[in-house]
Specification:
The complex is a heterodimer of chains A (515) and B (108). Chain A is of the alpha+beta class and 515 residues long. Chain A contains 19 helices and 7 strands. In chain A, helix 1 runs parallel beside helix 14. Chain B is elongated, with a radius of gyration of 14 Å. The chains are: A alpha+beta (515), B mainly alpha (108). Chain A: It comes from Neoroseomonas lacus.
Chain lengths: 515, 108
């Protein structure tokens, strides 16, 4: 080996980070906001914001489903929670087009329909985070898994490369060009290192059934359905007996479940063969009660109310998977915990961003403005500054597109991608620094526009209404947009100040050379 | 309580930071730290970081507390790195002030 170990690690770190940097930033940032997926979804459905979970939601919703779909083979009901005041019911109906499924948003107090504007809500960012958009799902997940693997390689090689982790722990030297980018990159990485390692590793684990299927295929002899049944506690459907029998009252079952879970709340209800003698009622515990997402489950006989089976997911493999998955998605522990996760995740996004910027700054200083450097710079602007602007466009489209518009869900998403595509192309036609300044300012303006347009389009969900009512779940989105605006505006000012700095200064030289 | 945990961790990190020559110089204008003071700062730093851990446990319990603590450490260290080059004295002055405010907040 010609080069030393540390040099080869530095090489690996430099190039592995660049290969996936842009996509990784998008994955990181959409994942970061996905900690608040239910809140974003609720913000984007202002019509539902006044709904409340109610105290007898399970009873109300099951009674309503008996009225609506008495002959359906099964109902899946996602129960309301602190974070989502609406019950969502899904059931199979062969007459429904196109997929033979129907769904309804139910008011958990009355069982009535809650009509809201059509939107993908926070689910769009969440899905983009691990399966991107428009690609076949397995391929997209492979790409994301690959990015996560490279990320893990980058983190480990970065730790080896960074010799002065403790000596430089608090070091940040601003206005020194490349030095500052390196300091910033290292500080963002070091200060949240436990988080970065955790989130990357657990991210790989969430997709491990796809990337490493062999243990499952071996242990379940190639039968994935059997694996799903064993892991998720969902058994294969039993055919109806044809003997009409009413469903047992659910109130005692709810009490039984809560007693067994020491007060844990019901997150999901699954009813199979309702109205038949073979009916079963399954309760799964809510995710927010524990770190692990492996759900405690109770299955009742649907006609007698007797407990058929319970599932306490405490086997070592199950608990390991559940806890890793739970750590990744961070649904436990409430708002303050999520805010802490959010901050670390934001630092992760910034770490990826500063890494790709550092690559270009370093490259330009070393070998001048070649075509490769210029390409990286162009992609940096659109991928890093363009994304938050496009995300703001997505929220704005939610308020500005007509509520009755056909294909509304798709158009919100198209608005996001059209905006992002324009911003990816825009740096081609501008000087490097100009492109940064314009896109950062645009992002700041668009982020400010979100709460402003909210006031005009849907006054009921604007800050003036949500703050006095202590609705932090909704006000938080507007406030976060304002905070992002300050952040982006601050970055734009910094780019401007660096341009104005005297050229003799060592750091300013290579960025000024960009012009 | 989370505020208190962050405040304690902040004070701890500041103490450890001031025990380093370069940062001591940035705040107090001299890189020379008397060796007793250095030891005292190091001890205080680690003790304060340690103290933020039971605060998290008290707030979150044993299942969530250790996870929250990692986030608390990150949230406490970030403002130090951002303040140090611009407002070094304010950064140091906040170290005793924040835990007191945090404790008052936790009592209310």
């Amino acid at each position: 080996m010609k080069a030393g170990f540390r040099q080869s690690m530095a090489w690996l770190h430099t190039w592995s980070g660049l290969v996936v940097g842009w996509l990784l930033f998008a994955i990181f940032l959409t994942g970061t906001v996905s900690y608040f997926r239910p809140e974003i979804s609720l913000w984007m459905r202002p019509e539902l914001q006044q709904a409340a979970p109610g105290t007898r939601a399970t009873e109300v919703v099951i009674a309503e489903m008996q009225r609506r779909a008495p002959a359906a083979p099964s109902w899946i009901i996602l129960m309301p929670s602190e974070r989502n005041p609406v019950a969502s019911a899904f059931w199979r109906d062969p007459t429904a087009t196109p997929r033979g499924f129907r769904q309804a948003q139910l008011d958990p107090r009355t069982g009535g329909d809650l009509a809201a504007r059509a939107t993908a809500g926070g689910d769009f960012f969440y899905a983009f985070h691990f399966q991107l958009f428009g690609l076949p799902i397995p391929i997209a997940r492979w790409i994301v898994s690959f990015c996560a693997m490279v990320m893990l390689v980058s983190i480990v090689s970065g730790i080896v490369t960074h010799r002065r982790i403790f000596a430089d722990f608090f070091t940040f030297r601003p206005r020194k060009g490349q030095r500052s980018w390196l300091d910033g990159h290292a500080a963002l990485a070091t200060l949240a290192l436990p988080y970065h390692l955790m989130i990357t590793y657990t991210g790989l684990v969430t997709l491990i059934a796809l990337t490493m299927p062999w243990p499952i295929l071996t242990n379940f002899e190639g039968n994935r359905a059997a694996y799903t049944a064993a892991v998720f506690g969902i058994d294969e459907a039993v055919p109806r007996a044809g003997v009409a029998t009413p469903l047992t009252p659910v109130t005692p079952l709810v009490a039984e479940a809560k007693a067994r879970w020491h007060g844990g709340e019901i997150g999901r209800v699954l009813v199979t063969n309702p109205g038949d003698s073979t009916a079963t009622i399954t309760f799964q515990q809510q995710d927010s009660d524990r770190v692990s997402v492996s759900r405690r489950t109770i299955i009742f006989n649907g006609t007698t109310g007797a407990v058929i089976a319970t599932r306490e997911p405490d086997g070592p493999a199950d608990a390991t998977r559940g806890v890793m998955y739970g750590l990744h998605v961070g649904r436990f522990g409430g708002g303050v915990m999520r805010a802490l996760f959010f901050l670390s995740a934001l630092m992760g996004s910034a770490m990826v961003a500063t890494g790709t910027i550092l690559w270009a700054v370093k490259r330009r200083q070393k070998s001048g403005a070649g075509a490769g450097t210029r390409l990286v710079e162009i992609l940096n602007v659109g991928a890093i500054a363009g994304l938050p602007a496009a995300m703001a466009i997505y929220l704005l489209a939610n308020r500005l597109l007509p509520v009755e518009m056909a294909g509304r869900i798709t158009w919100e998403v198209y608005c996001f991608f059209i905006a992002w595509a324009v911003l990816l192309l825009h740096p081609l036609f501008r000087s490097h620094r100009r492109a940064w300044q314009e896109q950062l300012w645009l992002g700041a303006v668009l982020q400010v526009a979100v709460p402003v347009v909210n006031v005009v389009a849907t006054p009921g969900s604007a800050l003036a209404a949500t703050l006095p009512a202590w609705r932090w779940d909704i006000a938080g989105i507007d406030l976060a947009c304002l905070a992002f605006a300050v952040l982006l505006g601050g970055c734009a000012c910094m780019v401007g100040r660096e341009a104005a700095a005297p050229r003799q200064r060592r750091g300013a030289v290579q960025s000024a050379a960009a012009e | 309580m989370t505020i208190l945990a962050i405040a304690l961790a902040y004070a701890g990190f500041v103490a450890l930071c001031l025990a380093m020559e370069r940062h001591h110089g940035e705040v107090f204008g001299t890189r020379r730290i008397p060796s007793r003071r250095r030891v005292a700062l190091r001890l205080a730093g680690w003790a304060l970081l340690a103290a933020s851990f039971p605060t998290c446990i008290a707030d979150w319990g044993w299942a969530f507390g250790p996870i929250a603590w990692c986030g608390v450490l990150t949230a406490a260290a970030l403002p130090i790195v951002l303040l140090l080059p611009y407002r070094p004295r304010a950064m140091a002055a906040l170290a005793p002030a924040l835990p007191i405010l945090g404790a008052i907040g936790a009592c209310l």
